[in-house]
C-alpha cells in the first residue's frame, strides 16, 4: 500500500483481526492548509509594514496576501532583486541570497532586543507576586493610567540605580510635590511633579503595597517588591496625612545584606580580635547600637554570615526581614497578628537555638528575655537605638534591667556610624588652614594624605560614593562587671562622662580614615560633630 493510500485509513483491531476504516479527511492536506493559512496571515503583516510594497498599494496587497501569501512575496522579492541587479550589475541570485541573510539577521536581532528590553524593564509586584499593572487596571483612561504606571516604575528604577536607601514623596505646596532620594545618608531632591500626577503615583504605590487608596489621613504601612532581570529588591512603605496632602516614605531594604561580611563593614584590624572572641563564645550578648540609619542591621547580618549555619541552629526575630539567610529560621514581627518581639523570643527558646538574633530591643520584656537567653547557653545578637555604648547601658537600665543581669549577660557593645567615602575619580588634596596644620604637627599626625570632596558625574556632584562604618567597641571585662554591681552612681557617671568618651573614640576612628584619604574632615564633622 502506498503512503498516500495509507493515510486514508485507520487500522483498528477488532477481536484479534483488523479492519480498515477510511478517514473523512487527509491529514497531510489538512496540515498544509493550516500552515498556508498562518503563512498568509504572516505575509499580510509583511505587506502592511514591509518596504517591498508601495504605501498606496498596501491595502490591495493585504487582500491578495490573504490568498496568495508566500507566492506573492516570492514574486515581489524576485522583481525587487531584478531591479537592484540591473542598477548595481550584481547577479540576481547574489542579491536574493543577501536579502535572505539580512532578513534572518533582522529576525534574530529583534528577538534578542526583546529579551534585553524585558530584562532591563523593572516590574513592581505586591507581596503575592501580582504585578502593579494587573492590580491597578487600565479602565477607560488607558493612556493616562499607563503613563502614571510608567512614571511610578521610573521613580523606583531611578532610586535603585542611584543606590538610594529611601524615597520621600511629600507636598511642597498646593500645586507641587517633591521627590527626594536619600543617597549615602544625605537627602537629594531629584524631581518635582504636579499635585494631580503625584497623587496618582502615590495611589499606584499604595495599591501595590496593599494599602487603602481611599484613606488619605490615617497613617498606613505596606510593602512591595521590584524585579529587574534577576535582581529583586524589597520595599517598606509608610504613608501619613500632612498639611498640603499625603506624604509617602519608601525604605529600600538592603539588597546585599545576605552576602555582607565583616570585612565590608569598616572594622579595623585592631577591632577584629574582640569581635571574633565574642562571636566564638557559646553564650553572651553582642549589642550593636547607633542612631537610625547607622548600619546596625547590616553589621548584624555580617556577623550572622560569619557563623556556620549548617552546624548551629540560627533563629532571627526581625521587623522586617531585610534579606533571606539560607540555613536559618527567620521570623517577622507582626503586631496586628499579636506576633511581638517578646512573645516570639519566649517561643523560640523552646526550639533549641544556638544563635538568636533580635532585630531591635524596644521594651523591658524583650531586653530581659534576650539577656537571660545569653546566660543560658545562647549567643544573642541584638540592636538598640541610642547614641553611644555608655548610653546603651543607660537605656537598658532605664528599661528596668538590673546591673547584675547586665554584667552576666553582655559580652560586647558596638557603637557605630556610617561615614561617606570620597569619590576616587574626583577627590583632591585638601587645602588645610595653618592652625589645623599646626595642630596636626603638635600631635605628630601626617596630614599629607588628607583629601577633600570635589564632585563629578560618577558621584552626582557630591564628591562622595558609598559609605563605610566607624566603630567604637566596648568589651565587658571583669572590671566592667564589677563596676556594674558595686557602683551605685554608675548611671550618672555614664551619662556625664561615658558618652563624651565614646564620641571621642568615634572621632579618633573617623580621623584615621581621614588620614588614609578615604573620607574628608568635613564629612567627619557632619557625622560625629
Proper CATH architecture of the largest domain: 3-Layer(aba) Sandwich
Spatial gap, N to C terminus: 98 Å
- Label the structural class: alpha/beta
| Biggest sheet character | 7 strands, antiparallel
In helices, the fraction of residues equals: 40-55%
Strand line-up of the largest beta sheet: 3-7-8-9-4-5-6
CATH topology of the largest domain: Rossmann fold
The proportion of strand residues reads 15-25%
Sequence stretches where pLDDT stays below 50 over 5 or more residues: 1-19, 110-117
**CATH homologous superfamily of the largest domain, by name?**
P-loop containing nucleotide triphosphate hydrolases
CATH class division of the largest domain: Alpha Beta
Number of strands: 18
- Please report the number of helical segments: 18
Shape: elongated
Number of domains: 3
Mean pLDDT figure:
82
Q: C-alpha Rg, in Å?
A: 34 Å
What does it look like?
The structure is a single chain. This protein is of the alpha/beta class. It has three domains: 27-119, no CATH class; 125-252, Beta-Lactamase (2-Layer Sandwich), CATH 3.30.450.90; 257-420 and 467-518, P-loop containing nucleotide triphosphate hydrolases (Rossmann fold, 3-Layer(aba) Sandwich). Helix content is 44%, strand content 24%. The protein has helices at 3-6, 27-49, 58-68, 70-88, 92-120, 132-136, 142-161, 195-208, 272-279, 296-306, 341-348, 364-375, 389-398, 403-409, 434-443, 478-486, 490-515, 521-528; strands at 9-14, 17-22, 123-125, 164-171, 176-183, 186-194, 220-228, 231-242, 245-252, 284-290, 314-318, 329-332, 355-358, 379-385, 410-422, 428-429, 451-452, 464-475. Strands 3-7-8-9-4-5-6 form a seven-stranded antiparallel β-sheet. Helix 4 (70-88) packs across helix 5 (92-120), helix 7 (142-161) packs across helix 8 and helix 13 runs antiparallel to helix 17 (490-515). 29% of the residues are buried. Residues 1-19 and 110-117 have low confidence and may be disordered.
